[in-house]
Each structure stands twice: as C-alpha cells, then as structure tokens.
C-alpha cells in the first residue's frame, strides 16, 4: 500500500459489507492510494439451518444478525485506521456498500425486530440476506399479476422481479408471520440501515430503491396492485419509503455514538448507502456507457451504464442514476459463480486434487472441448436471464473417463456462458457492451479470466484494486465530503484499472462458439419450459425436507 503522505492530505473510509464479513479501507483522497485495511468476520455468518436460539429453518432460507454489521464498525474501521497510520482527524468522510437485496424489519426508530426478546425466535424478524430464496412462489405471483394488469414497471425489470427483492420477501413475511409484518414499521435495505446507524438520519439510496424496491419514474407499485396480491399488503410501500437521495450525496454527519464505535471524528460526512456491485463501477473507472463491470465472487453482478433507457428481457433492472448520476444503470447477475467452484472443491473433488490451484493447473492443460462436457450454472438458481431460483445445476456428457479437472473446467466455462447470455441480451436490446472490467477475488484465476475473454470475445480489463467495492465506497465518501464535485471526477482521480490484460484468442473463441450453442440449447430447454424437471425435483425435495423437520417435533410430543 502507498504510504507517501503529505501534511495536508485528507482521507476517507470505505466499508464493504459482504456475505460473510465486512471490510474497512482507508484511502487518500488525492489519488486513491489505499493505506490500510481490516476485515471483521460475522459472528453468525449466514443463518441457514437454525436460528441462534435453535429454531430450525426451512429450505432456501438465508438470514443474518444485524449486530454483526455494527461489529464491523466497532472492529474493522478502527483496525483499518490503525493499519493506515493516519491521523483520524484528517479523515473527512465514510461510505458503505452492502450486498443486496439484504433487508430487515425494524421499528420506526430503526431498532431491528430480531433484537426484541419476544421476537428472537421468529425467523421473519431477522435480516433476510440477498441469497434468501424461500420467496420464489411469492415472486411468481407478483410477476403473474404484473403481467395480467400490464403494470408499466415490469418491463424495466426484464419482465420478472426476483425472489431476492423487497416485495417477494415482504409478501412472504406477511403471509407466513403477519404479526411480525405488522410490527415492522420499516422494511429497509441493510445499506440504508447501517447509514442510519452511522448518522442517525433515515435515508434511502436511489440504487436499491430502483433495483430492489421497484421505484420507477418517481413511483412505487400502486396500493391497488399490492392489495390485489393480498388485502393486507397495501401498506407495504409505507414501510419501504423514506427520504430518497442520489449516489454520492451526503446522508448526514457521523454521530457521537458512531464516532465512539469507529474512532472517527464526530461530524464527518456519511455518504448515502450503495450496493457492492454498483459502487465498484467508480473504482473501476467504468462510469461511462459501454464498459461492463463484472464483480466476480461467490456470485457475479454485472453492471453497465447506458446513455438511454431500454427494456432488456431477463435483466435485474434499469434505473435512472442507479450506478452513477446522469446515466441509466443496467444490472444483471448470476446467483452462483465462486460458490459453484467452491462446492466442487469442498464436496466432490477427491483427495490430492481438492484445491482450486491444483484443479486449475490440470484443467489449463487441455484444449477447448476436450472434456466433452457442458454444465448449467444454476447451482444457486438463475438470476439472469430466467429469474428463477428454483432452477438447479446440471452437467451433461460425463463418462467413466471423466476426471475431476474436466468437471472443474466445465463449471468454470458454464459461468462464462452465463455471462455471454447476459451480454448478448444487452446488445440485442441496444445497450452497448464494448469491453469488460473484472473485479473481485476471482481475478486471481488466470485460466478463468482467459476463458471469459475467449467465450465473450471481448477484452478483459482488471480492476487495479483488490478491494473494488470498499474503494468505490471511499470514492463516494469523498464526493459526499465535498472533495470532488461529482462521482465522475472522483472516479478519474481515485479509481484504477489495468487495461486489456486478457484478450480473446480467435481459435479458442471459435471452439467455444460450438460449445456455447449447446449451452443455449440446454438453457432454453430446462429454463424456458421445455422440461420442468428441476422445478419438480425442488418441490419433492422441499416436501421431504419438511417431513424430516417435523419428525423431531413429533417425537418430542410422543415423549411428552
């Protein structure tokens, strides 16, 4: 990290809230130099099988503890400042980003319902993480009714809203635990909630409000629409709504309480909240139209700015100012990428090759297509283009000669095919995608990066920072503190990218065209109604899991 500091230098802090941990980064305003960082792992991580008190959870649930988010401020921020060796008095702002859609129910003054002793054992009182996929049937109903009524906003979301988003999760809460729903005076994105914790002011950011809250042209879905879904759902927008601010704006000033947590000066600027993927566009110098940023980690989010609005089938949404002010921001994504590779290494790779490094080394030595496999990258459902989290993974072509490295490479390639599907959907709708900037931990895998260049037939630029979201949040903090007039200027001064690190090889690209055609065939057959076996298997699994979960309770009743 660059440690050439001047007496008049000013600094900002970016805090990136991920799926399993939060990271704080101290950045110099003048040039974006990263001076100190620290990570705090969430104590409860992802709550997916049982609540901390022991109550079991059904399949496809993913919850979190909001106290873990506060602990990031208590531990990671002071540690990052200490590692940077800067005078805290020279820090002028703090910005945060969060996974999304990650939402929690609170009281009117922001107290999470799960912190009420009476509600600790109620699953719907907890934070619902982005990967909570138990509301798919609710999303299906929302989509069906929106098309039946020809709601004008549905086209802005590619024709389908996701089970991950605010409305599906809120409707599930109402129908499965109406008491918790009615106790929830706010249903708020974690990004906005943690900003509220920092500055004591309740705000909403245009990014999550647009992409996850269906705010289009200044309007949320109507009360009439919501009541048609469920008579008790008509007040849902009142739980979501709040003071709406653009990205890079100042949400408020750091309170004395938050200053005590973080060790930062009271009164410094707190930037409006943001999403981890979208904020990375600033650190990747990708706020201009046509440069798509793929933030590749456990999942991948694809964001790109466009000069005008277009409706793109299967996308997560298009939002005015959703990535940066002055442009239409487009979002797409894949619900499982690094998680897929990790699953194979942890659960399926035999001893001796059960590491990413060894499997990558072996897989890199084979020509394109030599393994004879095609995989579908739906191990955590499909976010784009199909928007269905009940879909599941598949590998076709295995024989007794198939080796672990063959499967591993096929899984790598499957995620590249999924990204190409997304790019082609953008281009067909008139949204330019000229090149890609890759961010996230998976940039370290050179084989994976070259596969993406060959499959997409586009050069891959690599973000120069290993902490893209945290740097992006710091950039927005600098704007909120008045150090730059706009996100565009701050991005140019503080962002960094390595240009054209990977270029497509024409011969490999042609070979991948043939494999990609087979991927598309499987994609459309199993994802667009040709055979709904994946959905039927999911229903059978859920029924069996429900029976198994009920068995211990039945046994206790017999003993009693």
Automatic annotation (TrEMBL):
Pfam families: FGGY_C. PROSITE patterns: FGGY_KINASES_2. Pathway: Carbohydrate degradation; L-arabinose degradation via L-ribulose; D-xylulose 5-phosphate from L-arabinose (bacterial route): step 2/3. Residues 293-481 form the Carbohydrate kinase FGGY C-terminal domain. Keywords: Arabinose catabolism, ATP-binding, Carbohydrate metabolism, Kinase, Nucleotide-binding, Transferase. The keyword Signal does not apply. CDD domains: ASKHA_NBD_FGGY_L-RBK. One of its GO terms (cellular component) is cytoplasm. One of its GO terms (molecular function) is D-ribulokinase activity. Its EC number is 2.7.1.16. It catalyses: D-ribulose + ATP = D-ribulose 5-phosphate + ADP + H(+); L-ribulose + ATP = L-ribulose 5-phosphate + ADP + H(+). One of its GO terms (biological process) is L-arabinose catabolic process to D-xylulose 5-phosphate. It is an enzyme of class 2 (transferase). The keyword Cytoplasm does not apply. It comes from the Bacteria. NCBIfam families: L-ribulokinase, PRK04123.1. HAMAP family: Ribulokinase. Belongs to the ribulokinase family. PANTHER family: FGGY CARBOHYDRATE KINASE DOMAIN-CONTAINING PROTEIN, RIBULOKINASE. This is Ribulokinase.
